[in-house]
Amino acid sequence: MNNRRAILKAAAVMALAPGVTLIAARAAARAPGEPASAANRWGLLIDTTKCGADCTACVSACKTEMGLTSHGRPLSDPQYIRKVDVADPETGMRHSLPVMCQHCAKPACVDVCPTGASMKRADGIVLVDRHRCIGCRYCMMACPYKARSFTHQDETGQKPYLPRGKGTVEACTLCAHRIDAGRQPACVEACAAHGGGAMLFGDLNDPSSPIARRVATQATSRIRADLGLEPAVRYQGI
Predict the structure, then answer these.
(1) Is 38 within the bounds of a domain?
(2) Which of 52, 114, 185, 203 is the most buried (most CB within 10 A)?
């Protein structure tokens, strides 16, 4: 188990480090009732050199797919993916990149959850069971990526694949419902169709997959890799 105190102290900090045309990949659909398999490790590779600072295609697609509506409170409205601007203090070089739940192999949110509501599927996707979440928000404090939101109000117009409830925590699911149906996450599709094609989705455990080949042959970085959480989201160009 990771040192909780060290994780909490690092919660608001993000580190940076290296370019590429990304290709879309699909998951194999799972039969209804078939459990997720540890043979898969779903992840994302994001080329920040192709991510425009003024592009929010991934953010908009996520809100539509997940039925996230604004309540006029920018600081507390639910948000599963956000754009972050980073700069190298020495060179002044700037990059814009999407940040979401990093679906860590050793998720701090799961470690600190007192009820087991924060959990990790066998294929590495980190989820929240709203029926078991008591709203303590320990997971929000433990997450060094600020990737979780708290539902402050009753929600309407919910999606059948994403039950939401007032007083619970929520975050990016990597569009698990789409992956289980053999589709790509909504953000990836939107980036390819309306953005710069910066996002590559696939199975990191499959050495023949485009994402695994790129990770094996090109320089990539993970946010706060020093924490040892082993995120499934990697970046190029930072």
Answers:
(1) no
(2) 185
